[in-house]
# Entry
Amino acid sequence: MHKIYQTTFGDGSGNCFAACIASLLELDIEEVPNFCEGNKNDWWEKTNKWLAKYNLWFCDVKILEYEDGNPLPWPGYYIVSGKGPRGLQHSVIYKDGNLLHDPYPDGGGVKPEWVGVLVPLIPPSIGRKHDDA
# Structure
């Protein structure tokens, strides 16, 4: 993972979520569209349409309750979204239950509300020939 920082800021125009995707895929921020810009209702569809070329899908769930301030103590990388210290919806990257990267230059994290993961559309083993077959 490369830490990529957002380049646009503000409600409806910030690209923190795109910076998280770019970080996880190790792409430059210019290579990832700002899925959340404009119509806020279609960001998920735009994200998954774009991720399909990487054989990935973004799956997110609302966090209803959690203990000890840890949104989901899962292993691996995931995106956590919620209100940031500037009062706007914001996205950051967690790894193994801890904040790893905040794409906002001054940081600050989020109050976790949603968690999302990148999931392969087709597992790599499907379609492979096995030597023992």
Remarks:
- The two ends are 36 Å apart (CA to CA).
